[in-house]
User: Which sequence fits this backbone?
């Protein structure tokens, strides 16, 4: 019957041609997905109970039998796994596979004490690669793209995770790793880069450096940025997109679960689709640990459904988000989480007041319209917490008039006081004086314990 | 008539002035005039140099925030009342001085005054009409 089906538009043809077979799992009907999840969950729980003594011990202490969970709805009966559980098991205490089956070890950055070691079997590396292929495909990356991977290669999972995914997709990968910004810009300019992967704060640094070198990123073929490993705001997204002429996507992951590729934004960019066939998400009240209904904000808890070497059950991520109840207009059936703006352990308590760095960002944005580099410095004087916000002066905010600069710091201080309900000291500092680590921006320096 | 003045943001800490000044010195940039406006927490270094584009490029590539502002320079006799004569020409014009600095012209008995007005063009008109000579940028090279 001619005309029964509308002819495919050029765009649709292109989408179809670029559809990657790995992405099929993004579109599973929900009942089928639930079946897959239930089967995988039960298998994971059995294996973990059988092969990880620490988990067996935890179940016994909580008085739960190994067969207590038969469905996804039973999952909240199980105890949580916390970061300190993983740290206590250092280095190999939570491995569920013998060493001869483990093909890779990574470790978390470990800001305090020992790092957390994570392990992968060959199957785990394969799963990781497949979720990263699906992540890249979601952002519209395809074979023929040139991907500059400026995530750090090494113990950090970002570099190799993105590398395997982009290569698996059939893109050309430049393993640039982090650092040496001038060379990054040279590579971006001369190698025909179309996709950049790094932390959003590092990309902002690249934008600044490119401008100093007289390179306009908007004139280059780069069109997609995949940014993760730290929370970033919509304002940062706008700044990045305007200054670099690209579409910026948020990717989420954590090495404790697998690395990058736990959740990813699609072209709608209204939340991140969780790869639920491998990672089961729950949102709980960070205080009580009680599960929260979809749509309510709380702490994200993840359970791995297919990890072999190191399954993790009900992991408290400390990331604050909500599960979005509505289906996404992209057609994917995978549920979405809201972008992560803060972590439950980001919260600072200053003179008894709860302070999140995201609130400081909101105040800075209100005054400056774009987010400058900043750092919160906490000290203690005369038994009282002192909070200082150091803000780098930018070409846009700098004036040759002293009064204009004093007005600027006054306005920032007022905006901060309004948002935080706390009087804080604002110090304008020279550009590039706040340390930027190659990975994550260090937003808070707490010297209160040293005093 | 107008001069390009470079302003550089400096934190009020030991050694912060040295960095930009040393950078320019190494590149052989000749400073014509310089002043530092300081507050408790930060300072603004204001410079007039022979090749301001080159100096700006140098400072920016070293990571400094640099602003180019148009200022004007006038020459007055280096004697009591020299400044007053200039300011009298502006009296009643409604033109405001944002800031100013002065330096003596050692070879003669003249002084140079550098002004940042809120209305540069208006100030030039007022001063010229009042018989005050506004210096061309090349004239400063003789100092």
Assistant:
């Amino acid at each position: 019957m001619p005309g029964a089906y509308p002819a495919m538009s050029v765009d649709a043809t292109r989408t179809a041609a670029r559809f990657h077979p790995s992405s099929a799992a993004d579109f599973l009907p929900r009942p089928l997905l639930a079946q897959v999840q239930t089967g995988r969950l039960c298998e994971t729980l059995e294996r973990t109970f059988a092969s990880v003594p620490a988990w067996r011990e935890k179940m016994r202490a909580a008085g739960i039998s190994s067969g207590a969970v038969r469905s996804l709805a039973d999952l909240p009966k199980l105890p949580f796994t916390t970061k300190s559980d993983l740290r206590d098991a250092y280095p190999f205490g939570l491995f569920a596979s013998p060493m001869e089956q483990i093909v890779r070890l990574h470790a978390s950055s470990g800001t305090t004490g020992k790092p957390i070691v994570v392990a992968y079997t060959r199957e785990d590396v394969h799963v990781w690669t497949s979720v990263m292929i699906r992540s890249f495909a979601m952002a519209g990356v395809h074979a023929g793209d040139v991907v500059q991977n400026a995530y750090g290669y090494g113990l950090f999972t970002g570099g190799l995770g993105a590398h395997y995914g982009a290569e698996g997709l059939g893109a050309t990968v430049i393993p640039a790793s982090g650092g040496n910004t001038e060379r990054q810009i040279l590579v971006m300019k001369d190698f025909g880069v179309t996709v950049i992967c790094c932390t959003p704060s590092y990309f902002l640094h690249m934008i600044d450096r490119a401008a100093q070198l007289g390179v306009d990123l908007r004139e280059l073929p780069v069109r997609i940025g995949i940014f993760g490993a730290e929370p970033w705001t919509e304002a940062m997204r706008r700044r990045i997109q305007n200054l670099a002429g690209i579409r910026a996507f948020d990717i989420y992951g954590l090495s404790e679960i697998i690395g990058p590729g736990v959740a990813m934004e699609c072209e709608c960019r209204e939340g991140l689709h969780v790869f639920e066939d491998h990672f089961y998400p729950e949102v709980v009240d960070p205080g009580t640990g009680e599960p929260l209904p979809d749509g309510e904000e709380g702490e994200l808890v993840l359970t791995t459904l297919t990890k072999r070497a190191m399954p993790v059950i009900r992991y408290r991520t400390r990331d604050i988000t909500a599960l979005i109840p509505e289906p996404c207009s992209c057609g994917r059936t995978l549920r979405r989480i809201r972008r992560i703006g803060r972590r439950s352990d980001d919260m600072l308590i200053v003179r008894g007041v709860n302070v999140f760095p995201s609130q400081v960002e909101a105040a800075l944005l209100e005054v400056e319209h774009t987010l400058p580099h900043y750092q919160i410095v906490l000290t203690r004087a005369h038994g009282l917490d002192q909070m200082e916000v150091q803000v780098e002066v930018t070409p846009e905010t700098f004036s040759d008039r002293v009064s204009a600069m004093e007005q600027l710091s006054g306005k920032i201080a007022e905006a901060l006081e309004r948002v935080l309900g706390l009087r804080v000291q604002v110090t304008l500092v020279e550009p590039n004086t706040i340390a930027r680590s190659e990975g994550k921006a260090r937003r808070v320096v707490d010297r209160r314990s040293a005093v | 008539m107008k001069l390009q003045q470079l302003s550089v943001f400096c934190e009020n800490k030991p050694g912060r002035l040295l960095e930009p000044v040393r950078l320019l010195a190494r590149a052989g940039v000749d400073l014509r005039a310089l002043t530092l406006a300081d507050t408790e927490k930060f300072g603004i270094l204001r410079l007039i140099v022979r090749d301001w584009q080159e100096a700006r490029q140098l400072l920016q590539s070293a990571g400094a925030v640099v602003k180019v502002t148009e200022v004007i320079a006038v020459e007055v006799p280096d004697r009591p009342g020299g400044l007053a004569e200039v300011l009298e020409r502006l009296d009643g014009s409604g033109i405001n001085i944002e800031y100013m600095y002065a330096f003596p012209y050692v070879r003669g008995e003249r002084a140079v005054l550098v002004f940042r007005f809120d209305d540069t063009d208006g100030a030039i008109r007022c001063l010229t009409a009042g018989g005050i000579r506004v210096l061309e940028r090349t004239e400063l090279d003789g100092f």
Remarks:
- The interface with chain A takes residues 5, 7, 9-11, 16, 37, 39, 41-42, 44, 46, 60-61, 63-67, 69, 98-99, 116 of chain B (CB under 8 Å).
